[in-house]
Amino acid sequence: MSVNGLTSNALYGSNVGRVTQAIAKASNRTGVDFNYLMGQAQVESAMNPTARARTSSATGLYQFIDQSWLAIVHDHGSKYGMDWASNAIEQTSSGRYVVSDPMLRQQILDLRNHPETASIMAAELATDNRAYLESRIGRKAEPVDLYLAHFLGAGGAAKFLTSMQQAPNAPAASLFPAAARANASVFYDKQGNARSLADIRATFERKLNAGTQAAGGSAGQPDMPDPTQTVMPADYVRIAQERLALNQTLSEQQPYPEFAARAETARLAYLMLATLGR
């Protein structure tokens, strides 16, 4: 989960301000540190909301893989007017998140490329991870700990940090063999020697701090627009409901009414989400 191994368009110049505003709004709404979210976005995607990993399904500003994205939207999407998405996502007995309609599933996954949605979901994930970690490690979670949770999952990060407290120089690869196989450069140095838990955490901290500096996060959080001058998500929810009611009335005149209603839901959801962070 880093900028390495990504395919991306050229960094989109004039839209960088939109990304920064999206991250700032997510920070304001959730209380997650602005500099942390900026640094994480820089490390993960070089602040490019359309970045894609070459070796996994990781996509967007925060490089969410498919399952992680479906999980966070399932848990938190309804807070931000995305009931249409969260209600469509189901968790199977094996813990996997699924959407029965393939078209709707893709529409939900495509929201990873929307900076406002990606930022608020990344902030919600950081909030969840922080609560879990602090219940396990007995101290306040630092930004690097949240990044470890993004990298290893909350359970993996808790295991990493509690193990480091007991044996900071222990080789991390022996505790996380699957992660080490997938991320050799993180767990081994250029000579092939296993890195210690403490070394990996320190490396991640340096990387995150450098990302914050590169993204301009240390310059301070930008001013937020006046919310009284902004169209709010609830307005689009109301409009969506009215439009869907109209679709229902006209359905007999349309050859594919179910498809039309679904497309209208997705289109209006994008409009609604476009207001977040502006």
Q: Any overview of this molecule?
A:
The protein is mostly helical and 278 residues long. The protein has helices at residues 16-30, 34-45, 66-76, 83-86, 102-110, 115-137, 143-166, 177-182, 184-187, 197-215, 233-250, 257-273; strands at 6-7, 52-53, 89-91, 97-99. The strands form two sheets. The chain has a two-stranded antiparallel ribbon with strand order 1-2. A two-stranded antiparallel ribbon has the order 3-4. Strand 3 and strand 4 (97-99) form a beta hairpin.
Task: Give me some keywords for this one.
two-stranded antiparallel sheet; 278 residues; mainly alpha; single chain; two-stranded antiparallel ribbon; 4% strand
List the helices and strands and how they pair.
Layout: E1 6-7, H1 16-30, H2 34-45, E2 52-53, H3 66-76, H4 83-86, E3 89-91, E4 97-99, H5 102-110, H6 115-137, H7 143-166, H8 177-182, H9 184-187, H10 197-215, H11 233-250, H12 257-273
Antiparallel strand pairs: 1-2, 3-4
Helix pairs in contact: 1-6, 2-10, 3-6, 6-7, 7-10, 11-12
How far is the first residue's CA from the last residue's CA? 28 Å
Percentage of residues in helical conformation: 55-70%
Radius of gyration: 20 Å
Element string (H = helix, E = strand): EHHEHHEEHHHHHHHH
What is the β-strand count? 4
Shape call: globular
State the helix count.
Answer: 12
Poorly predicted sequence stretches spanning 5 or more consecutive residues: 8-12, 225-239, 274-278
Q: Give the mean pLDDT.
A: 83
* Backbone structural class: mainly alpha
How is the biggest beta sheet arranged?
A: 2 strands, antiparallel
The main sheet orders its strands as 1-2
Q: Which percent band covers the strand fraction?
A: under 5%
